[in-house]
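Sample entry (156 residues):
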Amino acid sequence: MGDTVDKFSIENRADEEIRCAVDNVVHRDYDKAIRHIQRSLRLLKSIGNIEKYVEYLNILGLVYELEDDESAAFDCYLESLATAEVIRSKDLKAMIYSNIGSSYSKMGKSKEASQYFKDARDEYSSSSEKTEECHKMWMMFNYVNSAINDKYVAFV
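Predicted structure, serialized as tokens:
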């Protein structure tokens, strides 16, 4: 029982770090957001919560995009994609494909972006994981992707 309580407590701390990170993104303090996400990732890794680790690693990639660090963003996406494939999560793969598509779109690589958006749609439409939790995660990813696109469009 103690192990379960510890995992629950650690997962709650990881979730709190993400909430702080999202607040920092809203206030455009991306460095602080990155630190919160990295703490969250360490916590999740310590308890072996791989699915949530992949979700939050994806969020880290989005924040790196906000900082215009495409290389770090792609590193996050590729690690999370490889892990999502190992755990066979179509919903996570769909989110990752969507983020990679957004990144390619931002770089003006519309052909690559289009393919990843198609892959995201295909994975999500074939997913059986469509829960309220997944929907909330999609909403968060959409919010951060919108912030990235708004920032990018503002500079063009």
